[in-house]
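can u do me a favor
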C-alpha cells in the first residue's frame, strides 16, 4: 500500500531572509578582503615557502637543548593542569548561583560574570596579567584559569539546571539536609558530565598554554618565540615537535580518562 508522505512545512519569510543575509555577508567578506590568491599560488611563493621549511631541518638534538626543551614542556604541562584545577574551583563556585539556586538576581549577576570571563581570550588575559604578575608561567596560569572558569562555570550551570530535580526533592522531603540532598542527588547526576567537560578543557588548555608563551608567559611558547625571533629554525623545529608530542600525549590521556569515567 502506497502511503503519501505529508507535505513539507512551508518556510517562513524570515528564514529565507536570514539565509540571504548570511550569503550576502559571506560574499561581502570575500569582496572586502584583499585576498591575493594569484600571489599565494605563484612559483615565487612556493620557492620561498620551501626555503623556509627546509630551514627547520634537521631539528636541534643537542642533549643540553633537549633537557631545556623537556623542562619547558613540563612547565607548559604544569600551567595547563594548575590553570584547569583553579578553573574547576572557580567554575563550581559560580555555577551554583548561575544555575538559579540562590535567586534570579544572583543568577543574572553570575551569568554576566561568566560571560565576561569567557569572552576575553587567553592571550588577552595573559597580556593583562603580565602587567600585574610579571613575565613567567604565573601570569599564563592565571590567564588560563580566568578564561576556563567562565567556560566551565557556564557548562556546569547548564548541567545543574538540566538535572532531574525529583531525586533531590525526595531526599529533602524524607528529612535530608539541602546540602546532603544536593551532593547525593543533583551533583551525583552531573558529576560524570562535569568531569568530561573538565578533561576536554584540559585538552584545550594544553594547546593554549603552548601559545601563551608567545606573550612572555613561559613554557614552550616562550622558547619558540625566542628562537624564531633569532631565526634559529632548527631549535624552533625541536620546540614545535615537543609541542606536538605534548598535545598528543595529553589528548590520549584525556580521551582514556573520559572513557573510563563515562562508562
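np, heres the sequence
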Amino acid at each position: 500500500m502506497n502511503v503519501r508522505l505529508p507535505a513539507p512545512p512551508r518556510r517562513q519569510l524570515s528564514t529565507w531572509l536570514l539565509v540571504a543575509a548570511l550569503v550576502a555577508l559571506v560574499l561581502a567578506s570575500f569582496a572586502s578582503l584583499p585576498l591575493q590568491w594569484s600571489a599565494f599560488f605563484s612559483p615565487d611563493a612556493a620557492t620561498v615557502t620551501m626555503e623556509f621549511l627546509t630551514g627547520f631541518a634537521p631539528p636541534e638534538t643537542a642533549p643540553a637543548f633537549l633537557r631545556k626543551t623537556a623542562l619547558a614542556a613540563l612547565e607548559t604541562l604544569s600551567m595547563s593542569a594548575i590553570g584547569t584545577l583553579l578553573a574547576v574551583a572557580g567554575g563550581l563556585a559560580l555555577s551554583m548561583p548561575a544555575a538559579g539556586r540562590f535567586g534570579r538576581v544572583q543568577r543574572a549577576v553570575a551569568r554576566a560574570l561568566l560571560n565576561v570571563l569567557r569572552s576575553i581570550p587567553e592571550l588577552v588575559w595573559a597580556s593583562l596579567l603580565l602587567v600585574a604578575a610579571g613575565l613567567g608561567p604565573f601570569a599564563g596560569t592565571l590567564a588560563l584559569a580566568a578564561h576556563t572558569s567562565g567556560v566551565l562555570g557556564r557548562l556546569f550551570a547548564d548541567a545543574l539546571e538540566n538535572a532531574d530535580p525529583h531525586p533531590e526533592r525526595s531526599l529533602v522531603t524524607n528529612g535530608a539536609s539541602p546540602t546532603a540532598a544536593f551532593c547525593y542527588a543533583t551533583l551525583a547526576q552531573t558529576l560524570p558530565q562535569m568531569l568530561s567537560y573538565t578533561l576536554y578543557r584540559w585538552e584545550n588548555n594544553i594547546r593554549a598554554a603552548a601559545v601563551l608563551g608567545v606573550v612572555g608567559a613561559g613554557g614552550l611558547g616562550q622558547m619558540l618565540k625566542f628562537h624564531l625571533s633569532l631565526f634559529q629554525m632548527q631549535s624552533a623545529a625541536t620546540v614545535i615537535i615537543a609541542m606536538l608530542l605534548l598535545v598528543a600525549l595529553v589528548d590520549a590521556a584525556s580521551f582514556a580518562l573520559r572513557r573510563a569515567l563515562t562508562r
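The chain has a mean pLDDT of 85. hope that helps!!
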